[in-house]
Specification:
Blueprint: H1 2-6, H2 8-31, H3 33-41, H4 51-54, H5 63-69, H6 76-85, H7 92-105, H8 115-127, H9 133-141, H10 150-159, H11 164-171, H12 178-188, H13 194-199, H14 206-222
Length: 227
């Protein structure tokens, strides 16, 4: 380290890294300024939204602020922080409708890889229960959203709605979410899906075959009759 610290190139690297971090911090603070101001007024004196979920405490008074600001924020990092802060079951009543809407409306230029939409799906999965089914099924079946639907598909299992099994069987034909659908059917131990899952044991993708095998094992465990 002593040698490195005397190296002009290393010193320049550190200076540039520090400047980049400062610029990133300044950009974040500017993009999140309105949200942070309202959070402080609500009694949450944070310098970054990500501090809320990392605190280990509930922050119910922050949820309405985050919900109100989520559609207004365009900065990717700030928006992702907000989504992750809303990814808790106890925020469901306020957050679930706006998260579904954000999943639908997120502009491609704001999320070119689909990763941010996937994060929204992860939030929806975290808060999913039986009442969530109707709001999730349309998102899960909309192929325009590609792999970003993975966690939405998995969320269907958490709803335990009897209609979910047929939806998931249909999604086994969708290459973007077939593995997620298999995972969900395995969690449900859906005997009705056995035939469709068995067909995928011959799939060309080894990852699909592996997940199909795991799903069948879970289905079998769910229907073993005691002797």
């Amino acid at each position: 380290m002593a040698e490195l610290e005397r190296d002009p190139g290393y010193v320049t690297f550190l200076d540039e890294a520090e400047q980049e971090q400062q610029l990133r911090g300044d950009a974040y603070e500017q993009a999140a300024a309105g949200v942070l101001d309202e959070l402080r007024e609500a009694g949450y004196p944070v310098t970054a939204i990500g501090e809320l979920p990392r605190s280990g405490f509930r922050y119910p008074g922050a949820v309405p602020v985050l919900v109100r600001w989520l559609p207004k924020v365009s900065d990717r990092v700030v928006k992702e922080d907000m989504i992750r802060a809303l990814s808790v079951p106890w925020a469901k009543a306020d957050a679930e409708p706006i998260l579904r809407e954000e999943f639908r409306r997120l502009p491609t230029q704001q999320d070119p890889t689909g990763a941010l939409r996937w994060t929204i799906g992860n939030a929806l999965e975290a808060m999913a229960d039986r009442s969530s089914f109707d709001g999730l099924v349309d998102l899960a079946q909309d192929r325009r959203f590609g792999f970003a639907r993975e966690m939405v598909v998995r969320a269907l299992a958490k709803t335990k709605d009897p209609r979910a099994i047929d939806v998931l069987i249909g999604l086994l034909q969708d290459p973007d979410v077939v593995i997620a659908a298999l995972t969900a059917l395995g969690k449900l131990r859906a005997e009705r899906a056995r035939s469709a899952v068995t067909e995928l044991m011959g799939h060309h993708d080894p990852a699909v075959r592996k997940e199909a095998k795991k799903a069948l094992e879970k289905i079998d465990r769910g229907h073993v009759r005691p002797t």
